[in-house]
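Supplementary Note 3. Input sequence used for the single-chain structure prediction.
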Amino acid sequence: MREPPGQRARPDLGGRIAPIIRIAAIIRTGGEGAFALTGIDARLTASAMQQFPPPLLVFDLDGTLADTAADLVGTLNVTLAREGLGPVPLKDARAFVGGGARALIERGLAAHGITAAEARLDDLLAAFMAHYEDHIADNTELFPGAAEALGRFEAAGFIFAICTNKAEHASLLLLRALGIESRFRTICGKDTFGVNKPNGAALLRTIARAGGDPDRAVMIGDSKTDIDTAHNAGVPVIAVSFGYTKEPAALFGPDRVIGDYSELWDAIHALRIGQARALTQKRAHL
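The predicted structure, written as discrete structure tokens, is reproduced below.
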């Protein structure tokens, strides 16, 4: 029985996720110094490929997969202008991004010393989303190397999902505009499940909806919220250092930190070394 999110012990990464699909891809293509598996290794690999779902990478969106700050802050400043308030510079407002549109508006108002009532925030949020969805990818693009990383992992048999505190509809619109919507098994937002990050249930439900297994999943994010979410779900987490958080992501205890998407391959497989046999033998004794 799975323990409730937030109470599940952090897993021992030494016995977690098996790189069996990567191995199969290497054998098929003859790449990366291909080798032939024999004996017990061949039997374990074939057996594991039949028993386990594909390995799953779950991405945060804003500040992790896509650099959305310019469009989000631009929409914030349109919203503030309608309230008779001045703009917040992008360099200052980047750190406001990451908690969803409502939090972004609250932070923008707070920069002017204003706290709005909930009903007023509802109105501002509706106006914000209407403008943002019309300008969702005017100045937004994937972070450098992200598309190439997706391609490399996809070719090796990985599947992908999104777990974000952005609204689900806006997330779908954005990924569609960027041309990568179809690459994700599921795209889950703040309003998808009725719970959101850092509640670990948001990540576990995303994994389930993608057809994955928490024991074969990794979260990739940029913030304390993402890292806490993964910890609460008992799932390993890789942090990117180029996101929107003011504090270095390493302070929040991720399993790995990368500074560029070219580093993701090695970071993922550093969490997966020697695990094919351990996981298969563990399953054999159940």
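The radius of gyration is 20 Å. The mean pLDDT is 83.
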